[in-house]
Amino acid sequence: MTAYTNEQELLTALRRSDSAAFRNVYITHFNMVKYFIVKNNGTEEDAHDIFQEAMVVLFEQLAAGKFELTSSLKTWLYAVCRNKWMKQLEKQKRNVRMNDFEHADDVLLQEEISDESEKLQQLRKSLSRLGVGCRKLLLLFYYFKKTMEEIAVDLNYTNADNAKSQKYKCLQKLKTVYSSTPE
Fold this sequence. Notes:
Blueprint: H1 7-15, H2 19-39, H3 44-64, H4 73-94, H5 96-99, H6 101-111, H7 118-128, H8 132-143, H9 148-154, H10 160-180
Helix pairs in contact: 1-2, 2-3, 2-4, 3-4, 7-10, 8-10, 9-10
């Protein structure tokens, strides 16, 4: 890991899109965000999502020349992640259907259990082993036929491209879990 003597040096490297600088920010500050989110009814997966969204905001502001650091980078990241997480929690409170979504996939899949083939049963088992966030995303896309824009709004992603990226990651996880699930 590249050592940066001060935050200005780190910000200069970030402005150049230096991947080592972004890695440094992640290694240095992610655990703080994870601790906050897990202590506030979240999961490690939620923490990764929120931190990634904050990093996208940082990258976009740096690229647009709009980033002005008035505190430490640690404080800025914490504030952005905290605000994003609190908005997500507030949205979940308002959206009862989404609060109950954790169990919706079980209910929906049990309705069709009588006609499932062995492959579908294996897929159902694999899906149940994924995190709640991935199950929500995949069900919204494949079962409810929602667009990436709608999913971004429903799951509080920054934009449709972020939702699409998360969908790809979730599909990769599902493929891994599916191939390791005994038939």
